[in-house]
Amino acid sequence: MVEYGGRRGEIRWSDQTLLPLRPIKQFSGTVSCWYCDFKFSALNEPLFRFGRRHSRCLRVWFSIGVVFSLAALLGVTLIILCELVRTTLVCAGNTWKGNSLFGLASVIDGLHISLPNMVYLCLSSVICVFVHELGHALAAASEGVHIEYVAIFLAVLFPGALVAFNHSSLQALPVVASLRIYCAGIWHNAAFCVGCALALVLLPFIFSPFYIHGESLMVLDVPSMSPLYGYLSRHDVIFSLDGIRIHTIEEWKQMITMLTEQTYSISSDQPSVNLNVENGYCIPQSLTKEIAQVQFKGNQTYCPKELIAFASMTCLDVEKYTNDANRNNIHCMDAKDVIKLKKCAYPNFKEQALTNGSSCLCSEVESCLTPMQLPGLGWVEITYSSLECHNRRRSLFSPEKHSSGEKISCLQTFVYVGDLITMANSIHLTSYLPRWSIYFMAYLPNLLEKLFTYAFHVSMVLTLLNSLPVFFLDGEYILEATLHCFGLLSSRMRQSVRRCCLLVGTSYSACFILQTIFVSVS
Fold it and tell me: Could you confirm whether 366 is annotated as catalytic?
């Protein structure tokens, strides 16, 4: 945001000014019931000297920013209009549905702001505002405009910052030079977005001497409220889900989504039995005879605590997996013991059975038992190890050796039965593994990754907001300076067009933001 003397929003100056014509103290402030600020001028001279020294390069740089900002002003305005038309059609009864062009509704709907995330958000906001105001300051210095002061303010509950320029210097500038100053903040935020995205891409290469990226996931924290609390600990390495190797957080999310879809598919295909035919185990028949059968209350199965109901599945006949299980063939068993046995069904069980007529891998003295699940509850095997063991035997973790059946003694497996989405979101993971078992090193890549991610999104929001033709934002000054380029318009007509555009832009932007929030919370 920039501030200058004269009537706000006009480049036509008067003799009066809103800024002090004498130098202010190096540090000063203003406090009222709804507004407070902190002004400082310690950086005025260093920034001015730097801008004048590199004025030629900076003018070229900010001239590119003018082209970008004008395109952004036009593009964002058109997007706002399209969104309002779409909303009007939906409210009128049209069945056209779709996500917002910005995807803001889905972003707001998926926000889970915790205290640590608030720290990232505040820190990234400070950095992005600094980058924005630095752009205005350098652009002004390159044009020979002195900076009066830099202010950080809090208006009601909304923080912000501004750069105040010398009145007499600014009023003497040509329109193009003024545009370079007004567009500098938007251009710097856009460039900062690109820098954050590039940093996220290069982060694995930068940390490669100290960390391994994309080999396995490491647990950073397991809150006490997590369903995995007591099963996983900090710095454990997650190796696989249901026997499928997991390398990155993206693969973790994709796998959880796929297993969740399979869970709901099982519930809809088999509402009376809910057999999980994707996970069958070969259990010796002698063992099943010794185990007490499950108890029934109506159509519900009941097992003692920490035991799960398993039902026999006849895999010689592929159609029988859809039939209701015989109550005499349902047993309560400990999942920790069952998952150590050989599997008789896999995620592609149905395809194998339809192709070969049978997918049974059990011997004649074994029975293929599959877990019975409640509707909506998933079943997943999580294989993990400690970080120390992982680092000691990393060579044994290669996919070739794991698939060849070589035993890796440090791997442990447990079964989670419940809501998989809740489980996945309840723990904090990272795709970076330290090459040495030094625990404080484990958090650095994740901290930087989160900071760059938050900074990218905050800087993008600042770019979009300041591109809008809205009162008190950079778009107001960019619109005013652009209208002065049209010499055919009289001064009175320019002011009428400016007021009309700002009123419409402010109203449409407010409606768009309110509509986005309403859609996300409804």
Answer: no
* Contact between residue 11 and residue 480 where contact means Cβ atoms under 8 Å apart: yes
Q: Do 41 and 28 contact (CB within 8 A), yes or no?
A: no
Q: What is the C-alpha to C-alpha distance for residues 486 and 224, in angstroms, rounded to an integer?
A: 64
Distance, CA of 289 to CA of 319 (rounded, Å): 26
Place of tokens 């545009």: 179
How far is the C-alpha of 59 from the C-alpha of 54, rounded, in Å? 9
The active-site residue, picked from 3, 10, 45, 133, is 133
- Quote the tokens at residue 265: 């598919």
In the chain, the amino acid numbered 312 is S
Greatest mean pLDDT range, 260-269, 487-496, 513-522 = 487-496
Helix H segments across 16-54? 44-53
> Half-sphere exposure of residue 322, counting CA atoms within 13 Å on the CB side?
7
**SS3 category, 314:** coil
Give the DSSP letter of residue 227: T
What is the model's pLDDT at position 294?
A: 59
Which single residue is written with the structure tokens 């720290």? 119
Q: How many residues does the structure list for the chain?
A: 522
Encode pLDDT of 185-200 as tens digits: 999 999 999 999 999 9
Over residues 253-276, the mean pLDDT reads 68
Whole-angstrom distance, CA of residue 113 vs CA of residue 129: 20
pLDDT-derived band at 355 (thresholds 50, 70, 90) equals very low
Better-predicted residue by pLDDT, 352 or 139: 139
The answer to whether the beta carbons of residues 520 and 105 sit under 8 Å apart is yes
What span, in angstroms and rounded, lies between the C-alpha atoms of 108 and 448?
23
Here the tokens at position 456 are 């990218």
What does the alpha-carbon distance between residue 182 and residue 179 come to, in Å, rounded to a whole number? Answer: 5
H-helix segments, 345-386 = 349-356
State the helix-helix crossing angle for 474-483 and 444-467, rounded to 10 degrees: 40
